[in-house]
Structures are given as C-alpha cells and as structure tokens.
Design goal:
- The chain has about 575 residues and is α+β, with helices and mostly antiparallel strands.
- It has four domains: about 120 residues, Butyryl-Coa Dehydrogenase, subunit A, domain 1 (Orthogonal Bundle), CATH 1.10.540.10; about 110 residues, Beta Barrel (Butyryl-CoA Dehydrogenase, subunit A, domain 2), CATH 2.40.110; about 150 residues, Up-down Bundle (Butyryl-CoA Dehydrogenase, subunit A, domain 3); about 160 residues, Butyryl-CoA Dehydrogenase, subunit A, domain 3 (Up-down Bundle), CATH 1.20.140.10.
- The strands form two sheets. Strands 1, 2, 3, 4, 5, 6, 7 and 8 form an eight-stranded mixed β-sheet that branches. Strands 9-10 form a two-stranded antiparallel sheet.
- A hairpin with a 2-residue loop joins strand 9 and strand 10.
- The relative contact order is 0.10.
- The mean pLDDT is about 95.
C-alpha cells in the first residue's frame, strides 16, 4: 500500500484498491470463534436476565461481568503478561460488536473494557499494570472513566477538578465532581482527570475505597436503564503520587487517545445493534400476517428492510476497514501497547470518529424502522425492539457527541493539511478537471466515490483559504465538510468490500452486497451536492459552485429494484445475510 494510504485521512488523496482494505469476509476461524462466544454468552446468559438488569440489580450485572471475564471476553485488549489475550484489533472488535442485544450490559462492558481498562494498558506504570490489569481482564475488578463534569462535557479540558500535591510530596489531594460516570455504582478502579494546581491536566488511578471518594445518586435515564450511572464526588481525596497515570500535565493525551478507541468500539457495537434489529424485524415480518399475506411480502416493509441492510452493510464496511488500518500499522510492532500502539490509534482518529458517527446514526435509523415494522408491538416493552430503540439513542451522545466528532473529522484533516502531514490541499488543486469516468462493475459508483473525494478536497481547500486557522469558529461549514468526508469514506469502504466479494464469489452470489452499495452511493451523492453548495455559498466561493454540480451528479440507480433485490434475498433466506 502506498505510504499516503497508511496515513489517517490518506484515503482522500490516494487511489485505493479492494485488496488494500480489510473486510469482514477475511476473518479466520479463530476470530469467528470469539464472535460466536460473545454472541452465545449474550443469548444464553445475559438477555434472559434483561428484566433484572433493567431493574438495576447490580449484583446480577456484576456477576455477569465476572462470567464474561471467565470466557475471555474482557481480555482481548490486555497484554498476555498481565492476564489478557493480547489480540489483534480485528479480533477484539468482533467481541465488541457481538456483546450486544442488551444495551445496559453492552454499555457496562464497553465502558469497562475500553475507557475503564485501556488507560492503564497504554499509560500505566509497570506497578500499576501488575496491580490492576489482571483483575480488570478477569472481571474480578470493574473499571470506570471519570472525565465529564457538570460544567465540562464536550470541553473536557475545561475541567475544574483540582489536584494539589501534599507538603510532604507523598500524595495528591483531589477536589471536584465528575458526572455521568458509567459503572460508578460498582466500579473498583476509577481513571480520574484533574488539573494539578488548577493548570496541568493529569490522569490519576483511584480505588473505590479512596478516602474522600463518594458517589451521588443513580441517574434515571431514558435508555440503558440497567447500567449504573452516578456522579463521583472528590472531597479532599488523597491519592498516592504513584497513582499518577502517565505524566503530570499530559492527561489530554490519555483522554483523547482512549476516546479514539472508544469511538471505534462504539461504532462496532452500533453495527451489532443494527444487525440484531434487522434479525428481529425480519423474523416478525415473516410471521405477521395482514390481509391474508405475510407483511414481508408488502413493498412498504421490503423497502424498509432493504434500506436497513444497505446502511448496516456500509457501516460495517467502514468500521472493519478502520480496524484493519490500525492493525496494519501495528503489524510487526514488538510493543503494540507502547508508543507505536498509541501512534497507530492517534493516526486514525479521523476514521475512528467517522465510524462512531455513521455507525450510531445508522443504528438509530435501523432501530426506528424496526419499531415501525412491528407497529404497536414494537412500542411495547415486552418486545426487545422498544429497548433497542431507547438504548441506542445515547450512542450519538457519549464518547463525544456526533457534532463534536464531526468537528474532529474536519479539523483533524485541516490540521494535517496545514502541517504538511497530508497533501490534501495540493490534491485539491488537482481536483478541478472533468468528473471521473464510469466503467466496469460498479463503474458509476466507483466514479461517484472518486468525485466525492475530489469534492471534499475542493471544499476543504476553500475553507482553508477563507478562514485559515479560524476555521473552527465556522461550525456550519465544518459540519457539512465533515459529512462530505464521512460520505466519501463510507461509500468507498462499501464499494471496495463489494468489489472484493464479487471478485472472489462472483457477481451472482454477491448480488446483495452490490445492491447495498448502489443504494448507499446514490444516497451519499444525493446529499453531497447540497452540502457542498451550502458550504461554498457560505464562504463566498460561488465561482466554485460548478465544482459541486460537476462532482456530485446523481448516480443513476434503480432504487426500487435494488431494494427489492435485498428484501427478496432476506425473505428467501429467512435470516440476516450480508
């Protein structure tokens, strides 16, 4: 793969072939066994106890976390030296995707294995790793991550929690309040961020019995009702100096790098939710009869199933492409849990944010349509669809709201361009020629992707010219630019995956993926033109409007026929197939 394709955001300027990306069809038998184990654990152990979990029976939830640890489901990202499995990111991502179906438990395990454990994996001292990681990997200990405050949500560095070194230099005294802390009600280990002397943002590891640490009441939430969410109150909490995580004043690196992984895993979890929802909706549509026919035979229901699958296919494609990129950078690295591992994760922070945004919004769409297919039954709590719908809503908020993540996507790319780390602006100057031609299998879609990337580069160059370093203040443009980039990445990921599938299985057997790609590309292009025109108009670049018209021409797609192809296949198989 060319060097530029190994850089985060490099997909915008490089020519990517199907063999350059990792796709789910490449999982081996051992990796699929992890997925099967996670799925069976949820089906057999967790989901049957949903009523107790939703009633916030924390003893049951805690016991289930321990059982998950016994099965190795909490160990994937922990090095073998500390009781973990030290798996590649693709394997650990499969576990994250399949630990779904019970949103409260999914949230608890996601917080535990991700933001609750990984700060110590990547930034802990040897003593901290030896002390905490074996218990976190086995589920004997539960982790929590304390970043958000009542006055500092998206603006994490605006935190007011303060840490002051004691006169004898043996410990820090922490004062402040952390809010919306997942797992706080039964966590044993807390990663807490505070400002040393009110200035230097720093991470600390606190234990549950730390003097001065107390919890507020449980939050009553719209969804994920069974997960424990409280405030963490620090009143002269005394923390030994050896419990500083990383370096004093470098807490922002911990916070943001760990959030990058959290965003990726959240997007993968959303893919799992979308798949389960499609399964439930399809099963209901095959059984429910109206007017003497199964509702799965009605065009209105088939259209919904078609769109649900198409968008889920695209979300899955983008997610595992990103996981593969990270694994690619780590390949051959001796210490993937050291600086090299952190660099790989940070390199693809843009792509991780894309996966989070698109995955969570696809899952929202799919669960909403799932409710609609079930009708009144979908609105009743006795059916899991109602819970899927409520539980997924938080996915667009935590790990950084989707608005913040869109800003991350655009600002990260602009920053790399300004620093010369990626030739984005140079590529934009080359994006003024005629639209890319179409030809061959998925020719119109491949041409559309090439043109979408060029259009995103053109708008990016205009934003850099119009606003310079102040571009972040113009969020209306930044959000639309991010959507152009997200659309290009997702559409390209789906195209490359389907082409690879067709090459290996043949066009006939890959008919469903090919239909999904045609639908997604048509949808992305239809949305790109107006967004680009709105950006260019806002920046006073009306002379560039022709670029938007030229590079975002609608893809000629028989949407009705493609939706029918997908639905017919699903109904024929009577199960989810991708």
């Amino acid at each position: 793969m060319a060097d530029v394709l190994r850089r985060g955001g490099g997909f915008l300027t490089g020519k990517v072939s199907p063999t350059d990306v990792f796709v789910p069809e490449m999982f081996d038998a051992e990796q699929m066994l992890f997925a099967k184990t996670a799925r069976e654990f949820m089906d057999n152990e967790v989901i049957p106890l949903s009523d107790q979990i939703e009633a916030k029976d924390l003893a049951i939830s805690r016991e289930l976390i321990r059982k998950a640890g016994e099965l190795g489901l909490l160990m994937a990202d922990v090095p073998e030296a500390y009781g973990g499995l030290g798996l590649d990111k693709c394997s650990s991502s499969l576990v994250a995707e399949n630990l779904c179906g019970q949103g409260s438990f999914q949230t608890m395990t996601m917080a535990h294995t991700g933001i609750g454990t990984l700060p110590i994996v990547y930034y802990g001292t040897e003593a901290q790793r030896q002390k905490y990681l074996p218990g976190l990997a086995s589920g004997e200990l539960v982790g929590a991550y304390c970043l958000t405050e009542p006055g500092a949500g998206s603006d994490a560095l605006g935190a007011r929690t303060k840490a002051v070194l004691s006169d004898d230099g043996t410990h820090y005294v922490l004062n402040g309040t952390k809010q919306f802390i997942t797992n706080a009600g039964f966590a044993d280990v807390f990663t807490v961020f505070a400002k040393v002397d009110g200035e230097r943002f720093t991470g600390f590891v606190l234990e549950r019995d730390t003097p001065g640490l107390s919890l507020g009441p449980e939050e009553h939430k719209m969804g994920i009702k069974g997960s424990t969410t409280t405030t963490v109150i620090l009143e002269d909490a005394r923390v030994p100096v050896e419990n500083v995580l990383g370096e004093v004043g470098q807490g922002h690196k911990i916070a943001f790098n760990i959030l990058n992984i959290g965003r990726l895993k959240l997007g993968l979890g959303a893919v799992g939710v979308a798949k389960r929802t499609i399964e439930e909706a399809l099963a209901y549509a095959l059984e429910r009869r109206q007017f003497g026919r199964r509702i799965a035979e009605f065009g209105a229901i088939r259209e919904k199933l078609g769109w649900m699958l198409a968008r889920t296919y695209a979300a899955e494609s983008a997610a595992y492409r990103t996981v593969g990129l990270i694994d690619g950078l780590l390949e051959g690295t001796e210490d993937k849990y050291g600086p090299a591992g952190l660099e790989a994760i940070e390199e693809y922070s843009c792509e991780c944010a894309i996966v989070k945004v698109y995955g969570s919004e696809v899952a929202d769409f799919v669960t909403d349509e799932g409710i609609q297919i079930l009708g009144g039954y979908g609105y009743c709590a006795e059916y899991p669809m109602e819970r899927y719908y409520r539980d997924n809503r938080i996915a667009r908020i935590y790990e950084g709201t989707n608005e913040i993540n869109r800003i991350v996507v655009a600002s990260m790319l602009l920053r790399k361009a300004a620093a010369g780390a990626l030739p984005l602006l140079e590529a934009a100057r080359d994006a003024v020629g005629p639209a890319a031609p179409a030809g061959g299998l998925l020719g119109p879609e491949r041409a559309a992707v090439a043109n979408l990337k060029r259009l995103a580069l053109r708008v990016m160059a205009e934003a850099a010219r119009a606003y310079g370093k102040a571009v972040g203040r113009h969020q209306g443009v930044v959000l639309r630019l991010a959507d152009l980039v997200i659309g290009a990445y997702v559409a390209e990921s789906a195209v490359l995956r389907a082409l690879r599938d067709a090459q290996e299985r043949g066009k006939e057997r890959a008919a469903l993926p090919l239909s999904a790609v045609r639908l997604v590309c048509a949808e992305v292009v239809d949305a790109a033109g107006p967004r680009a025109r709105q950006c260019l108009t806002a920046m006073g670049a009306e002379d560039r409007l022709a670029d938007a018209h030229r590079l975002a021409r609608p893809v000629r797609t028989d949407v009705v026929a493609e939706l029918e192809t997908i639905a017919a296949r699903l109904v024929e198989m009577e199960r989810l197939v991708l």
